[in-house]
Every structure is written in C-alpha cells, then in structure tokens.
Amino acid sequence: EVQLVESGGDLVQPGGSLKLSCAASGFTFSGSTLHWVRQASGKGLEWVGRVRPNFNNYATTYGASVKGRFTISRDDSKNTAYLQMNSLKTEDTAVYYCTRGGSGWYYDLWGRGTLVTVSS
Amino acid sequence: QSVLTQPPSVSGAPGQRVTISCTGSSSNIGAEYDVHWYQQLPGTAPKLLIYGHINRPSGVPDRFSGSKSGTSASLAITGLQPEDEADYYCQSYDSSLGGYVFGTGTTVTAL
To answer: Would you put residue A79 in left (φ > 0), alpha (ψ -120 to 50) or beta?
Structure first.
C-alpha cells in the first residue's frame, strides 16, 4: 500500500526539542521530494519545508517561521524522512503532516499527521 | 500569514453549483506558477483534488473543476453533494517568499 506514516508527536515545553519521523511505503521513496506541512487546531495549512532526493543533493528549503529552528533530513535506506524541531514555541503547536511532492510542485500523498503540543 | 486569499465560507443547496476563489499576486499565481486544490474532510488529512489548475487525479469526480485567470484561480463544484462538505485549500509557489503557499481555506456547506 502506498502510504506515509508520521510518528513522534508529543507534549514538549517551550524551548524544547522534538524529532518527528515519516515512514514511507509502496513507492520509490529515494526518488521523491518530501515535504512537511502543519495545521494548528481550527486553522489553515502552513508549509514547513522540504527535502529533495539524492539527485538534487538532498537540498532543503524552509518556511520563514521555522527557518533556523527546524531541520528536515532523510534516510533513503530506511524509507524515512525526519523533522528535527528545536527552540520550540507555543505557536508551533499543530498537527504535522508528511507529504510527497508531485512533479508539478503539488502534494499527491499525505500521511495522517502527528500532533505536536508546545506548552508549559 | 497566507498570501493566497479565499472566502471563509460558501454554501449551496444540493445540486447547485458553487465556486471558490483563490486570489494571489504577481509573485505566485500571476507568475505562472501552477495552482492546486485540496479537500479536507472533517478530522482527516487533506487530499489532492485538482493539480496544475485543471487536472483531476484518478478517482476525483468530474463535478470538481479548476480554472485560472491572471492572478486568481477558482474551484467549481457543479452539482453539490452532501459529501462535499469540507474545507478546501488552494496552493501555489511564491517566488518572493521562495516557498510554497496555501490559501486561507474555505468551508463548503451543503444547505
């Protein structure tokens, strides 16, 4: 089955760190661009960042609100992408979705999401 | 802060046609970057509905259609069904921001 499964969401204090994982199956993970998109409760979607495949040198790009605090990486041998989140703020509280980037810069496959809560 | 603006809500009777606008600028939709649409049913992850302005992935009913003109795009639902009640988001790329952007989102209600 073609799917993405996120894990690692948790309750963390402001200023803390957390690492999310996105396990892929059913497609050629190594050739795909992976994105992270988040959604605060009752709010809209916000693009977090993306990591490109090996033949694009695993290039990463981030949204302005997370740049310098979040890092996206991948391990093609494990078909898994990661989102390392540091210096977390209360406004980072959201459901974090892992998505696959289609050839036309759209997201054609989504995981179910994992909840990150930043609170003291 | 979204750079693509959508109406907060639209509604219509079952069977009617409803449209959702997505207004951007010269650095995203107006710069010829593709516009895509997603449907998010309550409590679920978003799902790709329209890609490249007008294309439907396999399995998406043909009552959903997309269009684009200038710095705006639109999603139309022709023959609204109760199961179409959901949130809808447009998405594109913005060259000024150097990243991907979503619309503010629109809740569709079947009266």
So the answer is: left
Given a cut of 80, whether residue A85 has pLDDT beyond it is yes
Among B44, B48, B52, whose Cβ lies nearest the Cβ of A107?
B48
Q: Mapping DSSP to helix (H, G, I), strand (E, B) and coil, where does residue A20 land? A: strand
CB contact under 8 A, A107 and B33: no
Judge whether B64 and B76 are in contact, CB under 8 Å: yes
pLDDT (tens digit per residue) in A86-113: 999 999 999 999 999 987 789 999 999 9
Subunit contact A110:B46, Cβ cutoff 8 A: yes
The whole-angstrom distance between B7's CA and the closest CA on chain A is 13
Cα→Cα distances B64→A3, A31, A49, B15, Å: 24, 30, 29, 13
CB A93 within 8 A of CB A117: yes
AA letter at A62: Y
Question: CB B46 to CB A107 under 8 A?
Answer: yes
For residues A49 and A84, give the distance between their C-alpha atoms in angstroms, rounded to a whole number: 11
What residues contact B55, with CB distance under 8 A and at least 6 apart?
A: B66
Please provide the DSSP assignment of chain B as one string: --SBB--SEEEE-TT-EEEEEEE--TTTGGGT---EEEEE-TTS--EEEEBTTTB--TT--TTEEEEEETTEEEEEEES--GGG-EEEEEEEEETTTTEEEEB--EEEEE-
